[in-house]
Amino acid sequence: MKRSRFSEEQIIGILKEHQAGLGATELCRKHGISDATFYKWRAKYSGMEVSEAKRLKALEDENARLKRLLADAMLDVSTLREMLGKNF
């Protein structure tokens, strides 16, 4: 997955500028982002503080790690069942 040029702190700062009254198109032009990116950020980070965004990122990383562990365990189980099902 491509890494963003902007950190969570910068994204929240940009969104706070918008809340202060700056227009979305002006912000996008000023920071070099597309309208779609701005609205995606607004949907994800709207109303968050920096500490909450960091916690969200940590939870997303932990969730991805746990999903990988579950997939590995399921693969091991299916391999063992297949091996036990064969007659030697």
From TrEMBL:
Gene Ontology molecular functions: DNA binding; transposase activity
UniProt entry keywords in alphabetical sequence: Coiled coil
Keyword match Calcium: no
SUPFAM superfamilies registered for this protein in UniProt: Homeodomain-like
GO biological process: DNA transposition
Coiled-coil intervals, chain numbering: 49-76
Top-rank taxon, per record: Bacteria
Pfam families registered for this protein in UniProt: HTH_Tnp_1
Protein's recorded name: Transposase
Lineage, highest ranks first: Bacteria, Pseudomonadati, Pseudomonadota, Alphaproteobacteria, Rhodospirillales
